[in-house]
Specification:
Chain A is mainly α. In chain A, about 85% of the residues lie in helices and about 0% in strands. Chain A contains seven helices and no strands. Chain B starts with a strand and ends with a helix. The chains are: A mainly alpha, B alpha/beta.
């Protein structure tokens, strides 16, 4: 566990130069929310933007690793490929959760203190968990792509995979509706509405687990 | 003598390059210099030792242990400096300490900061702002601060000025004072290895051409400079390779005493490692 702690420390410390960008990002969204007419709605959106911002921050650590060719060096230390991948996913998940918490805090500040409205807890949770799922989905595709193709090419492949998966899901829904097998959007939405938080947590865990396994396999087979 | 590194019949095939049947042994307490031109296979051999690449066949043992099965245990006791990879340059030496103390069981914080002071490296300045010499020093210090028994260094002096190179060679000399410690160092700056190495292993085009003690190499090998006519009288089994220059032939021989007796030759030059390497690469047989 010490090794994972060491690797997460590395990710955090090497991103300290990114700190100013992140603060600027938070400030921009915070201030833009204040000057909008519908401050309350924008306030809820802030949760998603914070998760996205912190998620991007975490994925940037992969770019720093690539720039320094750090994985090769790390593997000369008593560190396994599995630990490198595992610590990266822990770091990414932690960043998302911190983004989620910051998002709720800022959102609360804007809605309650600036717009003078009572924030809806249900909306907080649904926006936050929805944002988490979306960002996790992108990251779960992005991380293995970066391990496989590098940060530059990985981005292109990520867009291709995201587009493909979106089309696939859309296609499944479309077919479901066409052949009437109960896979209509409305029936899915009603399930989602009833089991929303549980489903999102479950879906996020599953996509991260699959992504983690793929990343491990990629790095295991790769000559570093 | 106990071997710290033992490689047997190592092969690794790429599309345009191949490591062919590499056999290599580094005895404990010795410094081995791995020489060869760029792309000869030095770095690939080091990567294979460190299990960074999947080899096609062969066996590699470090401290008598299999380098794959006992990888973690082995890596606790080795320090590695690679030419093209390290931690991010957005970290500073204090950050590196915070990371490494979680990674090595034997990480010696005091020793690390002592090295930083000795080499006048700032603790809170990002590596990005260091000179090339300072960057290499921080890599070497990081490799030394967990009391390794073996140092593996890939081109540690390339791109450095003579002063920085000398300082770095001094670090290696200090490290080897403890007879339990050994070094495998690859370099194409052969004069550096002439200073510090006990053994020289020469890799050319993916094969080991020679692996001998430095003294043997420099004492026994010789270069005969002669005319075309004189060269034609030398039997091909009596020389390793020859190089045709504009006005003379340079002939590399393995045993200059034997050659002296057989050909009654008076002038046989003592070669440098670079001379030997050049004739091996550029010469003909």
């Amino acid at each position: 566990m010490n090794i994972v702690k060491g690797l997460i420390t590395k990710d955090l410390l090497q991103l300290k130069s990114y700190k100013k960008t992140l603060i600027l990002y938070i400030l921009i969204f915070f201030l833009t929310s204040l000057v909008q007419e519908n401050t309350k709605d924008i306030g809820y959106m802030l949760i998603v933007m914070m998760i996205l911002g912190f998620g991007m921050f975490a994925v940037a650590s992969l770019n720093y690793d690539e720039q320094a060719n750090a994985n090769r060096y790390l593997l000369t230390l008593p560190i396994t490929k599995k630990s490198i991948v595992f610590s990266k996913y822990i770091f990414v998940v932690m960043s998302n959760i911190i983004g989620f918490l910051f998002g709720i805090l800022f959102s609360f500040l804007i809605i309650y203190m600036v717009a003078g409205k009572t924030p809806s807890m249900e909306k907080f949770i649904s926006m936050g968990l929805g944002g988490l799922l979306g960002v996790s989905f992108i990251e779960a595709i992005q991380i293995p792509c970066i391990y496989k193709f590098g940060a530059e090419k990985g981005r292109i492949y990520m867009f291709i995979v995201v587009a493909f998966v979106t089309l696939l899901i859309g296609g499944v829904f479309f077919l479901g509706e066409k052949i009437n097998i109960g896979l209509s959007l409305s029936s899915i939405l009603s399930i989602v509405k009833n089991f929303f938080p549980l489903l999102i947590v479950l879906a996020t865990t599953i996509i991260y687990f699959i992504s983690y396994k793929i990343s491990c396999k990629i790095l295991e087979n790769k000559d570093i | 003598m106990e071997n710290v590194i033992e490689i047997k019949k190592l092969t690794k095939k790429y599309d345009k390059f191949e490591l062919k049947n590499i056999n290599l042994s580094l005895p404990k307490g010795m410094i081995m210099g791995l020489i060869g031109e760029n792309g000869a296979g030095k770095s690939t051999t080091i990567k294979a030792i460190l299990n960074l690449i999947h080899i096609d066949s062969g066996k590699i043992k470090i401290f008598g242990l299999d380098n794959k099965r006992e990888e973690k245990r082995i890596k606790e006791d080795i320090g590695v400096v690679l030419d093209d990879s390290f931690l991010s340059e957005y970290l500073n030496p204090s950050d590196i300490n915070k990371i490494m103390k979680n990674i090595y069981k034997n990480w010696d914080e005091k020793l690390y900061f002592k090295y930083l002071d000795n080499f006048k490296l700032p603790k809170d300045k990002n590596i990005k702002e260091f000179s090339s010499g300072m960057k290499m020093k921080i890599r070497i210090i990081t490799a030394l601060s967990h009391h390794p028994k073996l140092l593996i260094l890939d081109e540690p002096t390339s791109g450095l000025d003579p002063v920085a190179r000398n300082e770095i060679l001094d670090i290696f000399q200090d490290f080897i004072q403890d007879e339990e410690c050994s070094i495998l160092v690859s370099s194409h700056i052969t004069s550096d290895l002439e200073h510090i190495a006990d053994y020289i292993t020469f890799i050319n085009d993916g094969s080991i051409v020679l692996s001998r003690t430095k003294d043997e190499l420099l004492e026994h090998y010789g270069i005969v400079k002669c005319s075309k006519e004189e060269f034609s009288s030398i039997h091909s089994s009596d020389y390793i390779k020859y190089k045709k220059n504009r006005y003379e032939y340079e002939v590399l021989i393995e045993d200059k005493d034997l050659f002296k007796k057989k050909y009654n030759s008076k002038v046989i030059d003592k070669p440098t490692i670079e001379d030997i390497m050049l004739i091996y690469i550029k010469g003909e047989k």
